[in-house]
C-alpha cells in the first residue's frame, strides 16, 4: 500500500460527469495485470486519448494546469459499476490521494480505503460549488476528518475509525493485523495459561 495519509493539500481537478463507473475509470481490457505500478497511464483511458492514441487536449487530466493535482472532484455516483481494485490502483498511480463527490459507490469506496485513496462524501450543495470552482486549493485533515476550503470554511466528512487508522498508517487490513502480531502472541499465551489446569485441579478431575 502507499505511504500513510494524514493530510492532503492540493489543487482540485474536476470531472463534472455523473455516474462515472469503474469501466470508465479503467476499461476492462487493462485488467489482465495484478501489478499496480503503471496502471495510472490507463486511468480514464477512453477519455484521455483520441482514436489515434494522441492525448485528448480537452480532457481535464491532460491540461497542464492540472498537472500534479491530488484531489479529484467528480459528479454524483462516482465509482459505480463492477467491483475492481484496479480502479483505485489506477487513480493512486495517477497521483490522486482523494476523491470528493456527493455519492460514492460502496464497493469502490471500500476498495479505495484498502488502497490508500480517500473517498470523501459531501452535501450536493458543496459539491456543486466545488465543481464550479476547478483548481482551487483544498486541505484535507484525515485525523480531524475535516475538509478545509480556501475561504476558511470547513466541513466534516464521514470516515470510520479503523479506515482512518489504516490510511494514516499506510496499511491495508492485512497489514494492520500483521503489525499486531506481537500483541496477538502475548494474548494467545495468556489465554493458554489461563485455561491450563493446575496440578491440584488435575488430581481432583481424576
TrEMBL record:
UniProt keyword Transmembrane helix, yes or no: no
Q: Which GO terms describe its molecular function?
A: 3-isopropylmalate dehydratase activity
InterPro entries per UniProt: 3-IsopropMal_deHydase_ssu, Aconitase/3IPM_dehydase_swvl, AconitaseA/IPMdHydase_ssu_swvl, IPMI_Swivel, LeuD
**Broad EC category:** lyase
UniProt superkingdom? Bacteria
Q: Where is the Aconitase A/isopropylmalate dehydratase small subunit swivel domain?
A: 12-124
The catalytic activity of this protein is classed by the Enzyme Commission as: 4.2.1.33
Pathway(s) served: Amino-acid biosynthesis; L-leucine biosynthesis; L-leucine from 3-methyl-2-oxobutanoate: step 2/4
Give the record's keywords alphabetically: Amino-acid biosynthesis, Branched-chain amino acid biosynthesis, Leucine biosynthesis, Lyase
Please write the reaction equations for the catalytic activity of this protein. Answer: (2R,3S)-3-isopropylmalate = (2S)-2-isopropylmalate
Q: Does the keyword Amino-acid biosynthesis apply?
A: yes
Q: What does this protein do?
A: Catalyzes the isomerization between 2-isopropylmalate and 3-isopropylmalate, via the formation of 2-isopropylmaleate.
Family label = Belongs to the LeuD family. LeuD type 1 subfamily.
What is the protein's quaternary organization?
A: Heterodimer of LeuC and LeuD.
Q: What is this protein called?
A: 3-isopropylmalate dehydratase small subunit
- Provenance organism: Lysobacter yananisis
The root-end lineage is: Bacteria, Pseudomonadati, Pseudomonadota, Gammaproteobacteria, Lysobacterales
